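Thread title: Can someone regenerate the structure for this chain?

I was given the following input by a collaborator and told the matching structure tokens would be attached. They weren't. Posting the sequence so someone can regenerate them.
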Amino acid sequence: MHEPSEKSGGHSHDGHSHGHGLGGHSHVSLPAEGMTLALGAAVVATFALVAVELLAGYAGHSIALVSDAVHNLTDVPTLVLSWLAMRWAARPPTPQKTYGYHRAGILAAFVNAMLLTLVSLGLIYESVLRLRTPVEVKTGLMLWVSVFALLINGGITLALHSGRRDLNLRSVWIHNLGDALSNVAIVVGALAIRYTGTTWADPVIGIAIGAMVLWSGMGILRESTHILLEGLPRSVALEEVARAMLRIEGVQEVHDIHIWTLGTDLNALSCHICIPDMHMEESEKVLAKIHEVLDRDFRITHTTIQFERAGLPADAGLYMPEPIRRSEG
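Best answer:
Regenerated them for you:
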């Protein structure tokens, strides 16, 4: 059997092919440059909002406003990390960072989720204390500041909406969506306190905000941890990928298959494939077809595939008790 020289979008290295999609290298689609500018503007707007909410919360005796200010303050490192991650992810690979910086955004999302979780627990604790010892709240100040905060957080959420498929940007988008929803709750709470005198509404809103932040932070933490641990992409079923390759003419067995996520919209695969003896030109056609199926059906664009002669004993670890083989008949 002759190994392919990999004219179909990859390279041959002593018995294995390394591909980046058909026709040469393919690149992950990064968010538009406008997303970077939006994050920069969001940092400035968030700083201004935190200052206003802290002053108003202290002057108006509103734990909901103070909680929201602290919550928004955690947005600043979140936004800065996300902004840096987007810039790093656009950098090309280096001899030391051969995959480039695609994981920068995932790492930023992981750190952001840790901050969200810790802050949410603090907000819940402070709100419970205020619920036990309520104080009079200046509802007018609380109302107008929360409307101002809603405009800021709503604007940031809309600006980042188109880039939310990126896990890094989605962590920021979810965070600011939660901020906007909490501002709506504060408006409702201010109106309730003003017209019904229910002072307990203020700390209850603080608890609700903390719980919402905790829920969103844990979700992002689970997803980013899964990716950093080289977990199988959520949208991919391992056996389905193997079966799809086995349907290609010439592929007789697939084993030692691994699929993981490098970064947003960039999935990678490595595996061993058994094929019969054939001319190098024919094996190149098989390889090109494999790349086509993986890209079209599973959005896997970075592949390392090693061809082996069918019938030889396998010496690689298997992802299942038995390798996946073409069915007879």
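Strands lie at 10-12, 16-19, 253-263, 266-275, 300-309, 324-325.
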